Amino acid sequence: MFDTLELSTRTALVLWGAFLVSALFGAAARGGRFCTMGAISDAYGIGDWTRLRQWAFAAGVAILGFAGLVQGGWVDPADTVYASDRLYLASTLLGGVLFGFGMVLASGCGSRTLLRIGSGSLKALVVFLVMALAAFATIKGITAVVRVATVDRVVWSVASGTALSDGLAQAVGWPAAYARLLLSFLLGGGLIAWALVDRAFRTPIHVSTSLAVGLSIVGMWFVTGHVGHVLEHPQTLEEVYLATNTGRIEAMTFTGPMAYALDWLIYFSDRGKLLTVGVVSVWGVVVGAWVHALLTRSFRWEGFRTTEDLANHLVGGVLMGVGGVTALGCTIGQGLSGLSTLSANSVLALIGIFAGAIAGLRYQTWRLERMA
């Protein structure tokens, strides 16, 4: 059992660990041009699948890494924020579509926005503020009321759990742990193999970037699920995961944490507003990207070119804030962190995000053709 001093030390260790992991993510993602929207745009627009293979490799590493943590007893999959007995059919799909469309208008998803802030983009700073405000409104404000009264009602209860491995275990009668390990190996290994098949991908920069991003997800799982795990809190005598917003095991995600980061800044003097893993991960990505930009002498100020450019980024920020909270995560939150747990909700959200991104790219093409 921990005393108060030991608990404070452990909490600080969790926060510093989360900050360092997210900073490494920021530096690696910026250095390797890791971007989900860019990957979809490259594949859809010019038939270049290299960055999409980057994403697949990172997802494969995250899946295998999470399975390894579970197998080693360092993380309990039932305590993750993605563990659920309900499929949010409408929320994940519709929220994903909104987020995907919005990230095209805003020149990148939440993580890319943070990377661009660290690189000197004032455009990304505006997107961050708008996205954080829209996200907070969808967590607790006016759009939260709409969300709860509409799409959140369309759910499907699954007693056995909504992880893909839960469905496999029930279908064939295997133990859940065995089904998880096998499916993680097949899916994670398959994604890595698909990425490595392409010779253009097999370069040091692509492989190292993908590996670093994937390991960042695994590292965050370890920090919150093992380092931050306390079996008996000295005050409540309950099991707790320190410094998380949900009280459960969290990994890297950015839509909700952007709202919490803005809230923490606004109410900085309020002693009740404590730093959390989500908040420090937001600043960590910005700092990591900023350090990389300085070291490579590529820091550049960037502003809006036209009024239409500003309008697109404002609308994109709103759509990502609303969509990311509605879908229960972003391209990193549902895409890499959620998928690493084999969450079916994450798969649905990814389908929505990819569909929304393609719709956004088609809209941009239509706009260019109309202007021409």
TrEMBL record:
Main localization (coarse): membrane
InterPro entries documented for this protein: Sulf_transp_TsuA/YedE
Keyword Transport: yes
Pfam families in the record: Sulf_transp
Keyword annotations from UniProtKB, A to Z: Cell inner membrane, Cell membrane, Membrane, Transmembrane, Transmembrane helix, Transport
Domain of life: Bacteria
GO cellular component: plasma membrane
UniProt membrane topology term: Multi-pass membrane protein
Positions of transmembrane segments: 12-29, 55-75, 87-110, 122-146, 177-197, 204-223, 274-293, 314-336, 342-361
Subcellular location: Cell inner membrane
Family per similarity comment: Belongs to the TsuA/YedE (TC 9.B.102) family.
Protein's UniProt name: Uncharacterized protein
